[in-house]
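Pipeline run #58 for the internal structure catalog. This entry was flagged by the ingest filter as a single-chain record with no existing model, so it goes straight to prediction. Upstream metadata was stripped on purpose; only the residue string is passed forward. Reviewer on rotation: M.T. Logging verbosity set to normal.
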Amino acid sequence: ESSTLSKTSQEYQIALSQLTERSIERRKKVLGDNFITFDDLPIKAEYVQAIEDIGAEIVWELKWFNAVSCRVSQEQVSRIGNLPFVAKIEKVKIIKSDDKDISENFLDKVQTSVDSGNTYDYGFSYTQYNLSDIPAVHDLGYSGQDVIVGLLDAGFAWKTHPSLRNADVIAERDFVYGDSSTDDGDAAHGTAVFSLIGGFDEGRIVGPAFNAQFILAKTENINSETHVEEDNYAAALEWMESLGVDITSSSLGYSEFDEGEESYTYKDMDGKTTIVTKACEIAFSKGVLTITSAGNEGNKPWKYITAPADGFNTIAVGAVSSANKVASFSSRGPTYDKRIKPEIVAQGVRCYHAVAYTDGYSYGDGTSFSAPIASGMAAQILSAYPYLKNTQMRRIILEAGDNPAEPDNERGYGLLSVKRALEYPNLKEVDGRYILNKMFIDEVIEDGDSVFVEIYEKGNDAVGIGQMEKNNGYYSFSFPQYPIGTELGVLFNIRKGGGGKIAIPNDSYKFIYGSLEIFKNTTDKIIPQNFKLYQNFPNPFNSITTIIVDLPDPANLEIKVYNILGQEIKTIFSGSRLQGQYRFFWNATDNYGSKVSSGVYIYRITTPGNTAAQKMMYLK
């Protein structure tokens, strides 16, 4: 076949016609104008007809795999195998979903939000959401608006439960019976999952993404002893992707199958073997953020994550208690090829959720429940930063865990905090320029204050300073142009109004100019053991210089600049700081904003228990 894809071909136009504008725009984020790929092309009609002529009943045409799923006899299998265009035939696996309720004796204290001071009353759902700072982000106004989330499960009785009856469901489809109803009386699990991400019944449950739009896919047949066919899942992902889904969330994990069926082995958990894993990875390549439960195998002989959690880009979510303790049932990593899994954890023990076919609620345990909570947080992030690519989202989610410096195979990068994710800086490319965006949620920024970014170029002692502009709830800075591939470090600081005082948070970050992924500079994060005032740099300087201070304990401190006669020239900072290493800068101005003369100056730091001073030289 041709190695190039012609945009004027009939096949290309058919593929294009099957995508919504929303899907096209999402794809363009990651694929640019070449957003139609070979795996989007329809399966040749003559191939399908030839298989049907043998007597096969086609169930699904899976264009991403250039394959069909069909019901056939053994004699028909042999005849189909002789067709010249058939590369291989595989038996479709019947899969057992591990979604059973699990209980653990955790002493989880259940709270209500009566005195929480948040915008919404979460009732008994408060604990599971507050663990990941979801109410705090609701207070900022982010609840999944303008985001499309796809859920794959065993059915959804959403129209009758008070927490879901007002949900914005834009499409639903039953991939078991082939109709548009996802409620056939077997929707207990899916309804619980849906309520955890998108439920809204104030005073009882307020899910993280209650303002999102939802696409629902029933892929599992409960009436057949909780079995589901792998290709139902793949077909559902193809359908959701074509409709423009941004995030998919599934609470189904596949490893061991019914007697008489060939089970997967741990060796197959390599990110490239199972149909469901490959389908998730293809969806990710088209701009979809794919999230799934890690599995409930942690205290069983299998132990490890289950497909599609083994995917290279699919985010696997483990479960913790409200005390942030990893649940014994939560599946562990690594993948067979030694990649860390799960990526993150969220609460999956004693999760308060809707009960289908009632107006009530109950508690449940499992990674089936931690996954929708994490997916809801992803929707909150995308609500705040709608331009983010799925690759950026994945990086931010990992870095926003509580264990990013030392990820392991029990909790991955740790407990996800959506507030940390929103505060994590990100980049947006506009017409070849890179714009840095960051929220400051916990920092107090008053009228008259200014936010600055320090830019450090690797191999260059010069420090760039840029003022950030407030924009849609966050602060933005447009980088000057650097050669593609330049490694840059960034620090953020807040200049207090009135006296020119400067407060600088401790976090530092790095990225490669031309890339959109930012990494935390964990090697720069220092917990000092002793008080220390460092020599300023650069020194001598002619525009601005940086002063670093180590504080082993929280303290009130003052940093002042004096001339050689001992006269005070500038108060750089006066206030309190927690334990940590801090950076301050001086731009060679006095307390009135006027430039000082060239010469030697002394900078001194004073705390209740320590005083230190250093000399520096300013050259105009």
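catalog note: Confidence is low (pLDDT under 50) at residues 99-113.
catalog note: The CA atoms of residues 300 and 329 lie 8 Å apart.
status: ready for reviewer M.T.
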